[in-house]
Every structure is written in C-alpha cells, then in structure tokens.
Amino acid sequence: LTTERKWGPLFAVLATTGLRFSEAIGLRWSDVDWDAGTVRVEQTVVWSHGEFHILPPKTKAGRRTVSLTQPAVRALRRLEHECSPEIRIFRTETGAPPRHSDIRLFLHDLCDEAGVPRINIHGLRHVAAMLAFEAVDDIYLVQQRLGHSHVGVTLAVYGYPARNESVVAPEIDRLLQATPSADTASNPDQS
Length: 191
Hints:
This protein is mostly helical. It has nine helices and five strands, in the order ααβββββααααααα. Strand 1 and strand 2 form a beta hairpin. Helix 1 runs antiparallel to helix 3, helix 5 runs antiparallel to helix 6 and helix 6 packs across helix 7. The protein is globular.
C-alpha cells in the first residue's frame, strides 16, 4: 500500500465494525474468519507508560465476535498478503502497533479529501454505531456489536439521533392512518 493509504484498511474496519481502537490494533490474522466474515475480539493493545501492553477486552461483553461489512472484508483483503496467524493485522513498518499519534494526520487527510469534517480515531466508533443503529434499529444488537456490558452505555454515549426530529410527526401520522379509528371500529357501517 502507498504510504498515504496505509491506514485506510484500519479506518474502514473501525468505521464499519465499531471496534475500539485498542481492539482493532489487537487483532491478529488468526482472529479473522474469512468464511464466516467475522473477527474475534480476544485481546486489546494499549499504549501506557511508554510501552504497549496486551490486555483482555475492557469488559466480558468486549470479548465477542463481530460480523464484517463488505468494505471491511475488502480492506482486510488488501493486507492479506502479510498474513501469518499470530501477526497483528495493523502495525507500523517496525512491526509495532500504531499509536493515535502515528495515524491521526492520515485520518485528517482522508477526511479533507472526502470533503467531510475532520474527526478523531474514536469518532470512527461513533460513525459505526450510527450506521448500525440506522441499519438494524435494534439497540441490543448495537450494544452487542460495540461490546458494551449495559445497554444504557450504548444509549447514553452513542444513541443520538441520525435524523431531524421533524420526521417523527409524519411517521406517527402514518401509523395513525394505518390503525382503524375508534369510531369506525365500533360502527362498521361507517367505513
């Protein structure tokens, strides 16, 4: 991959799966199930006190299997030539996991190129959460995908509206029109 596109696959995975940055950089090739189209989150990689630490997921719910979107699969396939089971998928030229500071400018450049507001790395998790909410309209599935122990966390942190409130009244009108009114239900001759 060209230098300016090196982190594109990581950004694609983050923006479509909702993995935490530490979970994504903890992924090894052995965590990818190509046939099922999933990744297993079994460990995280955290930068602390000047060094990387391999830790278990943040919560019990954090240890999970996450389905991959087609863009995420394509992004991972771009890196597959580097495939060795215990090697981490996302790493720098030295083989170390990337830090936020290593990739922040690459993300900003891609945002500028796409003509969208700049976001930080964690913002990609918010993008993924919003996409998941919009796609399935099921808070419990989104909770499971994001690896939260409690649905309240999912709602409090990621449950903001993707649409304007003005869509609510027309949707209520649609529901009310589909429901027989009390007058026509009690007197079938009026319908």
